[in-house]
Amino acid sequence: MSETTTAEIADKPGVHPAADEQDRANRKASSIEMQGLHKRFGRDTVALDGVDLDIRAGEFFTLLGPSGCGKTTLLRILAGLEEPDDGSLVVGGKNVTEVPPHRRSVNTVFQSYALFPHLSVRENLAFGLKMRGMPAAERHVKVDEIADFIKLGDLVDRHVDQLSGGQRQRIALARALICEPDVLLLDEPLSALDAGLRSQLQVELLRVQKRLGMTFVFVTHDQQEAMVMSDRIAVLNGGTIQQVGAPREVYERPVNAFVARFMGHDNLYPISNRQGGRLTTALGTLTAEDPGDGELLLIRPETLDLLPGKVEGDNHLTAKVAERLYRGSHAEFRLEIGDTTLQATVNNRGRHLPEIGETVTVAVAPEDLVTLHE
Ligand SMILES: Nc1ncnc2c1ncn2[C@@H]1O[C@H](COP(=O)(O)OP(=O)(O)OP(=O)(O)O)[C@@H](O)[C@H]1O
To answer: Ligand 1 centre and the CA of 71: distance in Å?
Structure first.
């Protein structure tokens, strides 16, 4: 364990900024290597179908995918709550495939708070330390430090049932952090919270992780949340990993149509004819610079320019505005080109934002067009 205490790295007056860096250096955040992980439930359910994944020490890593894709199973295997049928798991250079949960330096925060409702915040936070045999006086100090760190100092003597959902989730996080695990697993910890509180806690969680330099493995099915929080994301489907990459990579360069759709892309069009870079879809024919050999054309909504009226030119399409969602910083449009729809996002820099029913020209650059396989 690190010599530096949690309080020393808290962002409070009097703490030398170098304490942060020092603690990061001291803390032995762990890398995680998974190889060939398989898990089956009963005869018919394949939860994991050969997962190979490397997570770097100190990384905020997210497992993203639809319900039933195997995210929770993978997390439970990391925690030691589930045993893989096949494959190996190495944490911090040590093979822990057969090591029981309490002997791994891994802690978990679940979606439901999993706190003891009849105990005070202080008792909840101290629970794990008590189990480890830490003396009472030392526990007291440690609880105050962590409560301060996570900005719950004034709540420690309250009972858990007197707290709001957001406060309970912060306590659950504090309780997982207090034992200073090398790896923290988070299974949709924010999904029960309303939108405002959720985005506030997203920012807090990210700050805590960066400050502690711990390895976080975060599970979500919300692609926006994954993009905001993560250093890297693994997109799962049907127990297999589809793509691993930084948020921008996964959003801008999805490797297949599943990943593209899951990252929120709707502009996917079957290619009916192709001559070199000239690709024909239901939208018309467009020129792409280096489109690859996929059978679907992907057009990212934010790569489109909307010009008023009909403007002739290469890679120009004439469209009609069917829907406009004004969002202040930007506006989202649903455009109709014949029977086909196209989504466009336009940055609001005081430029013309077309009205519903208006005819516009959609312009797209050849380098922004890519093709994907189903
Ligand atoms: N204990 C179990 N017994 C039987 N089947 C299970 C068990 N746990 C998971 N499964 C099945 O394994 C598959 C993967 O489940 P898992 O919970 O890992 O998915 P998930 O991606 O976390 O889904 P969600 O987002 O809904 O929590 C699913 O088909 C699920 O029904």
So the answer is: 8
